[in-house]
Amino acid sequence: MKFSRLRGVKDVFGDETEIWEKISSAARKMFSLYGYSNIITPVIEDVNLFARGIGEGTDIVLKEMYDFKDKGDRHIVMRPEGTASVVRAYIENSLPPKSDLYYYGPMFRYERPQKGRFREFFQIGAESFGDPSPFKDAEVIKLAEGLLKEAGIQDRALVINNLGAKKDYRYNLVKFLEERKEHLCGDCLKKMERAPVRVLDCKNEKCKEAVKNAPLITDNLTPEAAAHYAEVKRLLTECGIKFTEDPKMVRGLDYYTGTVFEFTTSILGPQQNTILAGGRYDNLVAEFGGKSTPATGFAMGLERAAEVIKSQQTGAADEMSGAFIVYDSKHREMAFSILNMLREAGIKTLMDFEDRSFKSQFREADSKRVRHVIVIGDTEAQAKRLAVKDMKDGAQINIEINEAAAYLKAGK
RNA sequence: GCGAGUGUAGCUCAGUUGGUUAGAGCACCAGGAUGUGGCCCUGGGGGUCGCGGGUUCGAAUCCCGUCACCCGCCCCA
To answer: I need a labelling partner for A45 at 20 to 30 A (CA). Which of A120, A141, A168, A383 fits?
Structure first.
């Protein structure tokens, strides 16, 4: 019986895990620099956490949740994103009012798979609680940018917006759209009720034309939001962060209330080009029953970030390192003890346990890109010495066994 | 969820109007004088032609279904 993986999920290994590790170590470094601590929350949660948190009307909740009933008849969902869980945990565990947290783990969405879009995907995210200041927004964006930079992602652009509109904005926008109803596509008509701002972002040419003079959110911010937004922009410039503004950018999660931002890349195609996104959500903690607490955060998609790094990689060969033991089968015991000795001395050492020709063993040593080959044939075994060949220049020397570790460690 | 495309060896792909034992390159394995890699040469292993059904004397090739990937839309990281 042969099995294959389920739709939209993938096995990650080899070069790709290497890139993932590079990203996560970049993340650990940046988070520690900014004083964030790690939080691990369960993959499964109660459905209502996301229905309430992300928004009842969003696509994620409406049709993309991986949900099921467990044996106790509980309605469970495999988390489609990280923020709702972290907010829940923040309240439930009475974490300090000011908390800076980061997380790493798999998320699940029942979507049609495509390049850079999976049903199980990994996110690294950050959530900062308790600070309403525009400085915090700028700091979070600076952190996000630092993380991308540290991970080696050069191909990135930052887009920002603010969603702090006046109360009557939505009403006025809907009214504007109602008047142009006949020019809008079917999707937009649906969006009009649920998330009217989204209509402004439609790619359909007719819709674009129809909404050309629609009231923009940035022209209808509350005085506080406008001041906050201006301050965030000033601070970003102060930090040396380049950005563009997009008054039509809206995020797909309903909880955002102020600054929103997205880092995009050009290599993933127009629909999956967001690699990191986030924003301010000052009402969510209160909506979840906690004490009213301002908050802001972001999430990065590992698969997409890795894809960008992969596309940037030059074909440079890896450095040669470590040693490979080539031996005559009669002396396998001796070779094995040398192997253990070198490893205990902290030297990366490889060896093949099958009886293979010197030629085969050397070929393997070469493909493993080791710097040195230790040869143990009859001559060496009798003299209780080792021949050490430098695979870079082909030079070979003969040394005492107890000199080997020091010699290899010295490298070249 | 809607619309289109693709699916042949580990990888990238050939495969003529349906016709014998399905091919190439790369990768892998072995050998190329006496124990020594890369380049080169010789040989070798490896394929339920995505899967299931149908048409036919005969199907990788035609038809139907199904699964997967991928592209556009939707949405999002």
So the answer is: A141
- Our measurement of CA A356 to C1' B36, in angstroms, reads 13
Number of domains in chain A: 2
Q: Which has the minimum average pLDDT: A53-67, A132-146, A245-259, A380-394?
A: A53-67
Q: Give A260-294 pLDDT, tens digit per residue.
A: 999 998 877 667 789 999 999 999 999 999 999 99
Q: Which two tokens stand for residue A180?
A: 């142009």
Q: How many residues does this entry show for chain A?
A: 412
Nucleotide nearest to A81 (CA to C1'): B77
Distance A364 CA to B38 C1' (A): 11
CA of A110 to C1' of B64 (A): 29
CA nearest to nucleotide B29 C1': residue: A360
Please give the protein residue whose CA is closest to the C1' of the nucleotide B75: A59
**Any idea which nucleotide's C1' is nearest the CA of A362?**
B37
Contact A246, A161 (CB under 8 A): yes
- Give residue A15's pLDDT band: very low, low, confident or very high (50, 70, 90): confident
Joined tokens for residue A257: 């209330």
| Closest C1' nucleotide to A377's CA | B35
CA-based nearest residue to A288, from A114, A105, A46, A64: A46
Q: How far is the CA of A116 from the C1' of B11 (A)?
A: 21
Rounded CA–C1' distance between A352 and B38, in angstroms: 19
Same domain, A405 and A353: yes
Measured CA A351 to C1' B44 distance, in angstroms: 25
Strand B nucleotides with an atom less than 7 Å from a protein beta carbon = 1-3, 28-32, 35-38, 48, 67-77
pLDDT tens-digit map of A367-382: 999 999 999 999 999 9
Each residue's pLDDT tens digit, A296-324:
999 999 999 998 888 877 656 678 889 99
CB atoms within 10 A of CB A95: 17
Cα–Cα dist A132/A159, whole Å: 21
User: Both A403 and A276 in a single domain?
Assistant: no
CA-nearest of A339, A323, A322, A320 to A331 is A339
CATH of the domain at A393: 3.40.50.800
Residues A42 and A134 in one domain: yes
Q: For A122, phi and psi rounded to 5 degrees?
A: -105, 140
Q: Are residues A292 and A340 in the same domain?
A: no
Please tell me whether residues A102 and A46 are part of one structural domain. Answer: yes
User: Measuring from the CA of residue A59 to each C1', which nucleotide is nearest?
Assistant: B75
